[in-house]
């Protein structure tokens, strides 16, 4: 008899959450489990292996949307690449200054060495500019530190040290971009319950570099506070970062509340490692979803070309 696993058992065997498994099945058709007469999911050994492979490839930095439909055999090759190719990539990485800076930045984090971390970030900024710093150093470093924390190789203190250091460094960088007074305003934060703020800090810096006037409000703000900040600052858009937790049952309602409270014409922009797991709600409220910081930049450019924005209050409950 072939082994069969419930969704909870599949989650425990693969390291995924039940919420993620359901999202990958529903949105990306990554897996098609058998169902009982009562519509309960049952996963075979092959299904569990496929989910585990997808999880490992995503942890290596690939997007689930790009790999969800790949054959299982192809996924095996992605998690076990040709050693010759690995050596070639490692040699190429060694020659890449941003990779060297990223490794030195990680080493500085492990030692709680603030000056050396800042020096590594500054080297990339001077050599390659703001966008390269965000895309090739800060973003992958944040993911790597998060993975090391989950694996028990770094502590919560290391993660907090990194977050605080990046917030200060990028905050100073953001203030150096001089946007005109009539530049569109962007409110940047994370929804209530989302405590990881690196993605939001990066979004604010990206927006400033592209001619916006971002106002970063810190993490974990309830919908009514975000909407209030939009009204008081006559903001044209809201940028939200969703990273962790990945299976917050209260988040869809928070997003729906924000959409109801915002003035018409104000766009909601959402990104972050866990944002795709809430894709149905994002589509329902008409939010723009950015799979990467680069895509977020393209969306900002597109919105900015339509400026100046006219904010009109919704008729329901706002006079």
Question: Can you characterise this structure?
Answer:
The longest helix has 21 residues, at 130-150. This protein is an alpha/beta fold. 57% of the residues lie in helices and 8% in strands. The N and C termini lie far apart (65 Å). The strands form two sheets. The chain has a five-stranded parallel sheet, sandwiched between helices. The protein has three domains: 7-79, Multidrug-efflux Transporter Regulator, Chain: A, Domain 2 (Orthogonal Bundle); 83-171, Orthogonal Bundle (Methyltransferase, Methionine Synthase (B12-binding Domains), Chain A, domain 1); 179-304, Rossmann fold (3-Layer(aba) Sandwich).
Give the arrangement of secondary structure elements:
Blueprint lengths: L6 H8 L3 H11 L5 E2 L5 E2 L2 H15 L4 H4 L4 H8 L3 H13 L1 H14 L3 H15 L1 H21 L5 H21 L8 E5 L8 H12 L3 E4 L6 H11 L3 E5 L9 H11 L5 E5 L7 H6 L3 E2 L3 H12 L15
Parallel strand pairs: 3-4, 3-5, 5-6, 6-7
Antiparallel strand pairs: 1-2
Helix pairs in contact: 3-5, 7-8, 7-9, 8-9, 9-10, 9-11, 10-11, 11-15, 12-13
Report Rg.
21 Å
Number of continuous helical runs: 15
DSSP strand count: 7
SS class: alpha/beta
Mean of pLDDT: 85
CATH topology of the largest domain: Rossmann fold
Binned, the helix content reads: 55-70%
CATH architecture of the largest domain: 3-Layer(aba) Sandwich
CATH superfamily of the largest domain: Cobalamin-binding domain
How many discrete structural domains?
3
User: How large is the share of residues in beta strands?
Assistant: 5-15%
Distance between the termini: 65 Å
Provide the low-confidence segments as ranges. Answer: 82-94, 308-319
Order of helices and strands: HHEEHHHHHHHHEHEHEHEHEH
Question: Numbering strands along the chain, what is their spatial order in the largest sheet?
Answer: 4-3-5-6-7
Reading off the top of the CATH hierarchy, the class of the largest domain is best stated as Alpha Beta
Overall, the morphology is globular
User: Main sheet?
Assistant: 5 strands, parallel
């Amino acid at each position: 008899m072939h082994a069969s696993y419930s969704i909870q058992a599949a989650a425990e065997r693969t390291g995924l959450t039940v919420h993620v498994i359901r999202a990958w099945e529903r949105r990306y058709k990554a897996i098609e489990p058998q169902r009982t007469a009562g519509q309960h999911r049952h996963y075979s050994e092959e299904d569990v292996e496929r989910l585990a492979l997808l999880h490992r490839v995503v942890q290596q930095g690939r997007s689930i949307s790009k790999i969800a439909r790949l054959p299982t055999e192809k996924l095996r090759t992605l998690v076990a690449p040709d050693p010759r190719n690995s050596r070639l990539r490692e040699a190429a990485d060694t020659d890449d200054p941003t990779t060297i800076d990223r490794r030195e930045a990680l080493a500085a984090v492990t030692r709680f060495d603030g000056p050396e971390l800042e020096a590594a970030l500054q080297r990339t900024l001077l050599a390659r500019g703001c966008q390269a710093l965000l895309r090739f150093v800060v973003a992958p470093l944040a993911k790597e530190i998060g993975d090391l924390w989950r694996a028990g190789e770094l502590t919560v203190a290391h993660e907090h040290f990194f977050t605080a250091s990046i917030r200060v460094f990028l905050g100073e960088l953001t203030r150096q971009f001089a946007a005109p007074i009539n530049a569109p305003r962007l409110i940047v934060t994370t929804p209530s319950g989302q405590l990881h703020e690196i993605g939001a800090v990066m979004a604010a810096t990206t927006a400033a570099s592209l001619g916006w006037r971002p106002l970063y409000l810190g993490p974990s703000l309830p919908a009514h506070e975000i909407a209030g900040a939009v009204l008081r600052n006559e903001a044209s858009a809201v940028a939200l970062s969703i990273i962790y937790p990945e299976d917050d049952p209260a988040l869809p309602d928070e997003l729906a509340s924000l959409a109801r409270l915002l003035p018409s014409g104000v766009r909601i922009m959402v990104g972050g490692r866990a944002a795709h797991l809430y894709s149905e709600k994002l589509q329902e409220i008409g939010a723009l979803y950015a799979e990467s910081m680069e895509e977020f930049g393209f969306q900002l450019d597109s919105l900015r070309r339509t400026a100046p924005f006219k904010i009109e209050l919704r008729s329901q409950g706002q006079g």
